[in-house]
Amino acid sequence: xxxxxxxxxxxxxxxxxxxxxxxxxxxxxxxxxxxxxxxxxxxxxxxxxxxxxxxxxxxxxxxxxxxxxxxxxxxxxxxxxxxxxxxxxxxxxxxxxxxxxxxxxxxxxxxxxxxxxxxxxxxxxxxxxxxxxxxxxxxxxxxxxxxxxxxxxxxxxxxxxxxxxxxxxxxxxxxxxxxxxxxxxxxxxxxxxxxxxxxxxxxxxxxxxxxxxxxxxxxxxxxxxxxxxxxxxxxxxxxxxxxxxxxxxxxxxxxxxxxxxxxxxxxxxxxxxxxxxxxxxxxxxxxxxxxxxxxxxxxxxxxxxxxxxxxxxxxxxxxxxxxxxxxxxxxxxxxxxxxxxxxxxxxxxxxxxxxxxxxxxxxxxxxxxxxxxxxxxxxxxxxxxxxxxxxxxxxxxxxxxxxxxxxxxxxxxxxxxxxxxxxxxxxxxxxxxxxxxxxxxx
Length: 442
Ligand code: ASP
Fold this sequence. Notes:
The protein is α/β, with parallel strands linked by helices.
């Protein structure tokens, strides 16, 4: 029998009704042994996540203002859940301890972590599973990075004798003994760490969408769900703006070769998206591509100089100027007498004049042009590898939509094609590529 680690996000545990759904999912499969819950999230769109309430409440405490009212509202969220679940559990002592922690300034990480801590206690009581405080099994180094060895040892030791357990997400114990959290959305990371430590057969990440979508639903109407995606493809798409999973959640399971299944708590019958290692034999999507993502707000600097190509160290000098100003560049297409660097506009903003002056001095170009308002669109898919005609179809789609392509970049891995277009053409570019690859197949 395999071991599954199941993480439930905030919207999946926002109230008693949602927790009941999650519990039914857990109980329906004996392999779902270890549960990692988030704090209660939003019950409706204008609602406030408990984590945000805790940050706000601690802010008041820190400023020496009264935090009683916000604290009561947090207590009320949990009381309502306990009542709705019909369990016999009192969190009174916990709340007293937390209020003291606020007064004693245990830190905002401590404050935020209580969302998961309390929810974990409730869910453990409801399921009848043992509760393990994450501060006893997840450890950080002094620099804030995860102490992998200590964490893995502690998790293995605590879990090896337990058929089931609830381990709250998002936090652990810092090197100074105080509670530390991951960055926002960090329960995904906890789930991944637990799955890696127990060598799970699967890490299920339950959320409120049925997996990763081929394109952003705000741009493409009702896009198809990605059935299988590799870790590398996911990194490419996430970097270009697609988000469902915390970026750091990939690493602990990836190195252990454990797949992640993104599932929908509100539609458990749907298979969701499987995130698999590269070597996996999974068939590629019938669409050839796996997904399309993109970002706006890039700036291009075009640097022209006759015979640039034969000038040894030219590119290095350009990159040096950027590096010295702590600017990272995204792409660098070039020709014989010109090269272009594409940079996130925000990074460049305050340093623009300085960079141009330094470039002038360092490489003495014949001409330099700066263009703002560039968007990048990434078409990602392992199915592109050695498939003829993918690029042709992308550019045919763009040409047909009368979109001018300002830049093209394809890595030698043949995993993605990146095109630069103007921001005005961004949405249309994504739509026409989606139509070309997805709608033409259906
Ligand atoms: N509750 C935390 C947050 O809202 C962590 C999580 O839900 O993953 O960011």
